[in-house]
Amino acid sequence: MSTWGGVKDLVLQLTGVSDPTATALASLPQPMHGHCAVAVDADTLFVAGSNAVFAYDRASGTWDSRPAMQHERIHHACGVVLSPEGLEIVAAGGYATR
Question: Among 45, 67, 71, 87, which is most buried by a count of CB atoms within 10 Å?
Fold first, then answer.
């Protein structure tokens, strides 16, 4: 289900290689628009856009709010990189919202 100004319920978990299955995850805490999503590992998915960042914990089936991005962005790309501190999520490109 989508809401005006953003999507709140369109996050799917895909499983299976030869016979893939899509399962809807719990609704995001707020509608998102122009966001990106990245899987950090098999159990954690991050969604980021505008000034909101949420982490989905597959084990509990819940979303948790995380610290906001340093600069608000939409229509950007996300990736996971390995740094000396460990895994880090990087958002690049897109447009500043302010």
Answer: 45
Q: Domain of 44?
A: 29-96
> Tell me, what DSSP letter sits at residue 25?
-
Which region, left, alpha or beta, applies to residue 43 given φ > 0 means left and ψ of -120 to 50 means alpha? Answer: alpha
- Asked whether residue 15 is assigned to any structural domain, the reply reads no
Question: Is residue 56 a part of any domain in this protein?
Answer: yes
**C-alpha dist (Å) from residue 12 to 22, 68, 95:** 6, 23, 25
**pTM (two decimals):** 0.73
Domain assignment present for residue 49? The answer is yes
Q: Are 35 and 50 in contact (CB under 8 A)?
A: yes
Condensed to tens digits (0 to 9), the pLDDT of residues 28-47 reads: 888 887 888 888 887 888 88
